[in-house]
Amino acid sequence: MKSFTIVPAARLVGEIAVPGDKSISHRAVMLASLARGPTRVTGFLPSEDCLCTLRAFQALGVDIEVEDPTTLSIENRFHRLFPPREALDCGNSGTMMRLIAGILAGQPFRSRLVGDASLSKRPMGRILEPLERMGAHIRAEGEKETPPLALEPAELHGIEYELPVASAQVKSCLLLAGLHAQGTTRIVEPSPTRDHTERLLVHFGVRPLREGRALLIQGGLSLEGRDFCVPGDFSSAAFWIAGAAAMPGSEIRIRGVGLNRTRTGLLGVLLRMGAQIEESVEEASGEGEPRGSLLIRGGKLRGTQITKEEIPNLIDELPVIAAIASLADGETQIRGAEELRVKESDRIRCMVENLRRFGVPVDELPDGMIVEGGHPIRAARVSSFGDHRVAMACSILALRADGRSRIDDVGCVDTSYPGFSKDLHKLSQAAVESAPGWKDYLSWVQPSPKTSGGEQEPRRPVVAVDGPSASGKSTVAKALAKALGIAYCNSGLVYRAITWSLVDKGVDLDREQSFKSAVRSMKLECRIEENELHVRIDGKEVGQEVRSPAVNAAVSRVSASPWLRKRLLPLFRKLADDRALVMEGRDIGTAVFPGTRFKFYIDADPKVREQRRQKQGESDSIEERDWEDRSRKAAPLRCAADAVFIDSSRMTVEEVVLRMLEELRKRGFPLPKESSVS
Ligand SMILES: Nc1ncnc2c1ncn2[C@@H]1O[C@H](COP(=O)(O)OP(=O)(O)OP(=O)(O)O)[C@@H](O)[C@H]1O
Ligand SMILES: Nc1ccn([C@H]2C[C@H](O)[C@@H](COP(=O)(O)O)O2)c(=O)n1
Question: In angstroms, what is the span from residue 475 Cα to ligand 1's centroid?
Fold first, then answer.
């Protein structure tokens, strides 16, 4: 399963054009396929969803040539559709299924519409009822009126229908069915929804009549092919708009994006939250799709209230609004958004669960949520729940986490935004240009918050050395201790020894009680002999066995236990009671000896670290272990704010140790008269 690993970034900077609008791409293919004469569609979104629509119309006998991934030549040479040989696959797309059902309902042939697991759970009753009233023979084969949909040949007639819930998909389904019905179809909307279908109908020569809240379409009119350019998708741009607005110091420009007023509700919400957004409409061409560019500057946002009336114009943007509400000061309430529960996922449930994992206080409501913003964002591992917008919204929030986060199951992002991760990298990397070397990686080595300053200095001088796996910290810490003539303590050895014993005894690490009782019954001895830490468990001194693949694979899980860490803390501190020492690990400068003035954070490019570990002939999943060490709740791996950061990628061990000695001298460490490196 594909996942994103998100590196924190201070801000978003740069200029992009987002891919074509998903809603409009579907509709452009559908209407061009019904039209007489050729249409060239440019800016088409070649996402999984839209490609399903393209394949469906090819299967219905329409000539669709893909000139390049975003340019299509479409012509229905026979001015009719043909029976498809097999079921039409709508993939993950509710838009496709509901709209194409409107087109197929009035055809003189049978058809069947199927979808993926997620689409197969989505309600179709809302189109079945009005279509049946128009004379369609349509049946949902799934439970509770869910897909697949089976359609039999039928002749439709116009009806008057008042939508119980504002829905652009239901409205569009009925407009397309009305096009193939006898007489007039009158559709009344409770509140305005996105109007792409109406605009495209006008583009192809059929003008629905607007009478207040009602739309009227005359059956039997034919569409005329005409070239069409799809604007950039506002809902894709929304991730950058919201992300940049909420990250102080950001400045991004988005070109060629659709600015249809029925889609841009997000802008109003962000402006209310204090965002700085400049909009310039480049093309308002009458009844076509308006497009233009947006300039967003980042700042501190404040919470807001989003009401039922606003929902239809920002429904797809609610996940990202929930994400950035976490960064705003104060509370944000989202109400009247129960529709979110029947999208590609239950977006209320999924966002609430993910926000909680990021450490955001959030209350779930039947029709929305209350997000309490302004708290620190914790690095987290979350799931997309198979929903593209959840995946992207969480990616934006992860940029502001205190470490590297992981979003699992992100294959779904391709349904609307192929290339999202590339754009994320492009816009967030610009933010870390000032970091030397491997930019994106360095950006997550952010200083931990400053300690209160009240921590006690250890009784004897302690040099704290922290860093990720295979960064070389043991090697340099050992050499430094030798040069200083003081004790060297490898705290990781203690975690490894405990892990080895647990693995050796076959303890199930997932069962907390077994884990705790096994640790309690262990006889753990830590002694410094000949200036080096020695660990014994149940009377046996541990050796090379603690570096076995089984221990490497389990040690980060074991050391993530807050209970165990609390238990070991006094043991580590006691070692410094009567001697000076160099102690290395993952939390020495931040949790074990936060009061020491002598702190180092040793790091190296992940590729270099990988190579170093391979050279040692050890099997170790460095990336996985790093992630676990950084994302755990208790004492995660961080570079202390007052630590000296050393990138050892292009330094020899001697160079690193000399650099450390120099820093110790500057900080007043009691150096022996002659400290040499050997
Ligand atoms: N500056 C350096 N240049 C080249 N190789 C180095 C450097 N520092 C360390 N190494 C080598 O890299 C390997 C890994 O180093 P070391 O075991 O000290 O890393 P570590 O950070 O303590 O790893 P872990 O925490 O996983 O035990 C060793 O073989 C070591 O000799
Ligand atoms: N202070 C420490 C030291 C070590 N750990 C954990 C994290 C590591 O994955 C594991 C083994 O350490 P290593 O021998 O690789 O340095 O022990 C920790 O959490 N805190």
Answer: 6
The amino acid occupying position 605 is D
Given 316, 466, 603, 626, the catalytic residue: 316
What pLDDT band is residue 431 in, cutting at 50, 70 and 90? Answer: very low
Q: What are phi and psi of 432, to 5 degrees?
A: -115, 25
Angstrom distance (rounded) from CA 429 to CA 222: 50
- CA 316 to chain CA mean position, Å: 15
- Residue holding tokens 């009567």? 578
Q: Which residue has the tokens 């669960």?
A: 353
> Is position 578 annotated as part of the catalytic site?
no
ipTM above 0.90 for this complex: yes
φ and ψ of 371, to 5 deg: -105, 130
Dihedral angle over CA of 6, 9, 12, 15, nearest 10: -60
pTM of the model: 0.62
Distance, in Å, from the CA atom of 177 to the CA atom of 470, rounded to the nearest integer, reads: 64
- Three-class SS state of 540: strand
Domains in the chain: ranges and CATH? 3-18+232-432 (3.65.10.10), 22-229 (3.65.10.10), 462-666 (3.40.50.300)
**DSSP label at residue 183:** S
CA dihedral of residues 239, 245, 249, 251 (deg, nearest 10)? 70
Q: What is the per-residue pLDDT across 512-524, written as a single tens digit (0 to 9) for each?
A: 999 999 999 999 9
Mutation choice for ligand 2 from 526, 542, 559, 612, CB with most ligand atoms inside 8 A: 559
Q: Determine the 3-state secondary structure of 650 from DSSP.
A: coil
What is the residue-wise DSSP string for 87-138? PEE-TT-HHHHHHHHHHHTTSSS-EEEE--TTGGGS--HHHHHHHHHTT-EE
In this prediction, residues 295-321 reach a mean pLDDT of 95
| pLDDT tens per residue, range 141-186 | 999 999 999 999 999 999 999 999 999 999 999 999 999 999 999 9
Is 333 known to sit in a ligand binding site? no
